[in-house]
Design goal:
Elements: H1 2-15, H2 17-32, H3 35-40, H4 43-60, H5 64-78, H6 88-101, E1 113-117, E2 124-127, E3 131-135, H7 136-141, H8 145-160, H9 163-177, H10 185-197, H11 203-219, H12 226-236, H13 243-247, H14 251-264, H15 275-282
Helix pairs in contact: 2-4, 4-9, 5-10, 6-8, 8-11, 8-12, 9-10, 11-14, 12-14
Length: 287
């Protein structure tokens, strides 16, 4: 019994002792910097901090299998707040592109779930564990299959970069340690749901997802220029910017970076430039 307790608690703490120490020191400094908090702080407060710290460490070191399980829980929350499309053609389109991209991605070992959201707004998002969501408005707005593939590849880049996990960790630190309340699994799921549906990614996460997505497109032989071209198309009408640009910041800088990466690395590709056939099928489609 004692051995099991040691394995569950002490071993992870030993592996991550520097990380834990840094978080505890940060939390204590934040508390001591606030007069009211410092005056009322005692040992019992520290004992309440430690479980929250351990939980943040667990989030940082989550296995692929546990990430998929957590993502599944977040997905169950998400699908109660959006309307999934039943259009077989649209779902087959997105899933077929996903099937081409997954083997060429940074994390082909996890199962991906591609879903179409019935929403005319141009948007796409993802959550941990391989869950990708594409609005019907995005399908209609794309000029060709390659542009749609660029959006899917970008969202897969967030998953391969574990950006949601990093955001959840930061939110858990803020909501858990600073308030001296440890976040349980349900709270983590709620944080993940909120991040996916309503909160923008950081500038760094967007650039990283672009880099990963561009490489994924190239590896799958898609026309890589479709990624900056689609962003440029969406950015032209800045007075009526789509949700996609609001939740995916720094678009102009990202377009420049993508074009530069394409030139410097001599990236090309040929798949997905089926403008006429694609637009005939999807530009005025009834979802």
């Amino acid at each position: 019994m004692i051995k099991n307790i040691k394995q569950l608690i002490l071993d992870p703490l030993q592996r991550c002792h520097k990380f834990i120490l840094a978080i505890v020191i940060t939390a204590l400094l934040a508390i001591l910097a606030t007069p009211n908090s410092a005056n009322s702080f005692d040992l019992s407060d520290l004992l309440r901090i430690v479980p929250a710290v351990i939980q943040v460490v667990e989030i940082s070191n989550i296995s692929d299998a546990d990430e998929v399980k957590l993502g599944s829980q977040i997905n169950r929350n998400i699908v109660t707040q959006v309307r999934l499309s039943r259009n077989r053609g649209a779902n087959n389109l997105v899933k077929s592109i996903g099937a081409e991209l997954v083997p060429q991605s940074d994390r082909p070992q996890i199962p991906y779930t591609f879903q179409v959201v019935e929403d005319r707004n141009i948007n796409a998002f993802a959550t941990m564990g391989g869950f990708v969501y594409i609005n019907t408005g995005t399908i209609s707005a794309a000029d060709n299959r390659a542009q749609l593939a660029s959006v899917i590849a970008h969202e897969m880049g967030h998953i391969s970069g574990k950006h949601v996990l990093e955001q959840v960790k930061q939110q858990a630190i803020t909501q858990g340690i600073v308030s001296l309340i440890g976040a349980d699994r349900n709270e983590i799921v709620n944080i993940g749901t909120e991040l996916a549906l309503r909160l923008p990614n950081s500038r760094e996460a967007e650039f990283d997802a672009d880099r990963r997505g561009l490489q994924n497109l190239y590896n799958a032989n898609y026309a890589v220029q479709a990624m900056p071209d689609f962003m440029q198309k969406l950015a032209r009408n800045s007075s009526n910017a789509p949700d996609f640009l609001n939740t995916h910041p720094a678009v102009k800088d990202r377009i420049v970076a993508l074009n530069q990466a394409i030139i410097e690395n001599n990236l090309d590709g040929y798949k997905g430039l089926d403008n006429i056939a694609y637009q005939r099928r999807w530009r005025s489609a009834r979802f």
